[in-house]
Design brief:
- By secondary structure, this protein is of the alpha/beta class.
- The chain contains 16 helices and nine strands.
- The strands form two sheets. Strands 1-4-5-6-7-8-9 form a seven-stranded parallel β-sheet.
- Helix 9 packs across helix 10.
- The longest helix is centred in the middle third of the chain and has 24 residues.
- The two termini are 26 Å apart.
- The relative contact order is 0.11.
- It binds coproporphyrinogen III.
- The site of coproporphyrinogen III has 23 residues, from helix 1 and strand 3.
């Protein structure tokens, strides 16, 4: 999730102004930014400093990420003619800096695993179709149900984009991967199953031979959790809206989970934050297959020292569990 920039003064210091896509193109800078939270917090894994729109931008779709706004697309996806703008990704040619950053990081991280990632076909499609962030995703849903054949072609191409991008990150040394379908929770289970599941399943199936853990995440996905697992993920990420014990009940005992402290909780005084973090651990009740994290990205005004204490608490009390 969008973590680093949200909490660290050292991030703001090196990030510079302008589009994050510029920072991502600089392997020295992207390596440094990826390492910052690991250094400061002592977390158990690093997540590559990149963004879900990097592959679409790299093939020339015309995407930028505006600070304080998010991804914006100059000419949104409207019709079959726009499919021609979604050619296959060649990572070594189109975005060689990603592999360079991953290789550099793996050298620096030692035993700390690096998580590579991509945006899931639905969430990336939502930006390409809407042209920017949107609450209702009305244009996206209208395309999905109004022209299901074109929609299927669109998400199939975005599945290939995600797949090729993630595979190249693993080949460069990433040791776990995450598919971010952040906005999937805006869909009903039947819409998800019919119009999104096949494309996301294609991504997970195409990663199976790599033998790395595959995580699948979205927000407001309480009703979709079993479908996120069905797509072929090894681990399902859970936001804070579903208590972790209930999420595990919905997923069954064999599905590991990642989650799910509410990021807003981290703005409260420490004793309240500690209670909430302990509550997440208690709901897992010591069962194997729990990766503790926030239910979504760190909020910009979070005090880094609170996050430091959360990590320490989980390390201390998680051990006992
Ligand atoms: O924490 C990290 O640095 C990991 C790398 C990472 C980023 N984006 C960097 C970033 C990851 C894993 C993402 C994924 C991402 N990007 C998602 C999926 C996860 C999620 O948070 O739901 C989505 C939906 C995006 C699209 C995106 N990029 C949005 C909505 C924004 C926020 C715009 C803003 O400024 O509020 C971004 C920008 C972005 N990507 C930032 C970071 C650290 C924000 C700070 C910055 O621009 O420097």
């Amino acid at each position: 999730m969008r973590q680093a920039g949200r909490s660290l003064p050292e991030y703001r210091q090196v990030r510079g102004t302008g589009s994050i896509l510029q920072a991502i193109r600089d392997p020295d800078l992207a390596t440094e930014i990826t390492l910052q939270p690991v250094r400061r917090y002592g977390v158990d894994a690093a997540i590559l400093y990149s963004d879900i729109v990097v592959p679409a931008e790299a093939i020339g779709f015309g995407v930028d990420v505006q600070p304080g706004v998010g991804p914006v697309v100059a000419e949104p996806f409207r019709s079959a003619a726009d499919l021609a703008r979604l050619r296959p990704l060649e990572p070594d040619v189109d975005c060689p800096w990603v592999g360079q950053t991953v290789r550099r990081l793996v050298g620096e991280l030692g035993d700390v695993p690096l998580i590579g990632f991509a945006g899931a076909p639905f969430t990336v499609a939502s930006y390409l179709v809407e042209g920017g962030p949107s609450r209702e995703l009305a244009k996206t849903k209208a395309l999905m149900i109004g022209d299901p054949a074109l929609w299927a072609e669109l998400v199939d191409r975005l599945a290939d984009l995600a797949l090729v991008s993630i595979r190249s990150q693993v080949e460069a040394g990433a040791s776990a991967v995450q598919l971010f379908d952040s906005w999937a929770g805006s869909l009903s289970p039947s819409m998800y199953e019919r119009h999104v599941l096949p494309a996301s399943t294609k991504v997970f199936a195409g990663l199976a031979d790599l033998g790395v853990p595959r995580i699948h995440f979205g927000v407001t996905t309480g009703e979709l959790l079993p479908l996120l697992a069905k797509a072929g993920a090894d681990v399902v990420g859970v936001d804070w809206r579903v208590p972790l014990d209930e999420a595990r009940r919905r997923l069954g005992p064999s599905v590991p989970v990642q989650g799910n402290l509410d990021p807003a909780v981290c703005l409260a005084p420490w004793s309240a934050v500690a209670d909430e973090a302990r509550d997440v651990l208690a709901r897992n009740a010591g069962r194997p297959g729990h990766i503790f994290n926030l239910g979504h990205g760190v909020l910009p005004s979070t005090d880094p020292s609170i996050l430091e204490r959360v990590v320490d608490l989980v390390h201390e009390e998680g051990k006992a569990g």
